[in-house]
Amino acid sequence: MFPSGRTVAHCPGMRLLDHDQWATEHHGLLHRGACGIAAHAWHRALKAGLLEQLHPGVARLPGSPDTHLQRIAAAVLAAGPGALASHRSAARLWGADRPDGDPVDLILPGRNRHITLRDVVVHRPRDSARLTPQRRSNVACTNILRTLLDLGAVDPTGVQPALLAALGSGLVDLAAVEVALHEHARSGRSGIRPLRDAVAEVSLDRKPVDSVLEKTMARLVRTYDLPPCEFHPRIGRWEPDFLVQGTAIVLECDGWGTHGLDRNQFERDRRKDDDLRAAGWIVVRFTYRAITLRPGDTARRFGRTIDRWSHVPVPPR
Question: Cβ neighbours of residue 279 under 8 Å, at least 6 residues apart?
Fold first, then answer.
């Protein structure tokens, strides 16, 4: 944790090296109480520049990466027992892509506690459901379902991307989200409507989406102005993910969690591909990583596929 080439200094009553393991596990931070550091030694270290105080009792080691994650961890430590990263901060911890300008959000379950921290938004919710602490990156936070609900109260437009990220990584499924909406719904509960709207968006052509990848692929088609596709066309006894309209090209979207690890699903996909190809269809598969992490490359591959196979006669369905 200490920068290369730096002399490991110490103050009377405290050797920083003694706390290096703790700091390594907590994003380059030290907590005076948790580390058992005497007040006089702590203040000497701050005065000497051996520590940089972020909040009372919480400091970062100079040279440690100054990240949003470190700031979230520092706020949770400073807020004391029971504090949880929440709302925008918890969404970031659960893998949502969040703006760099987000403040740190915390929930303090005890509504009689009062605390003020610099650049931190402290929430004291009336809704106490689903507040069992979870840990992400060794930071206490709200669970993913509670996070999605709370996020809608402060950033409604951020709910759908966070939901898609959670669904795509297998953290939740739509059934669990629906249960959470039902359990939390009540007059005045903020965050319900944005999450309901986001769930409603995870559908295409009024058919239920059985894979978030299909929703993502449909967005990719629109973004890159690719030929329109029919979602879940009926072709013989199969329903592939997409059919490029007016062509014999069928697109299938493979998710790591549903196709790569499930042997039965893998075998079923192979039978589907074999049947469709035998009937004259061109089957092209795209992976989760290609669709979500390399949309431009995927769009170009899509275009090349159409250029190569658009002349193939469309088989009967």
Answer: 235, 236, 315
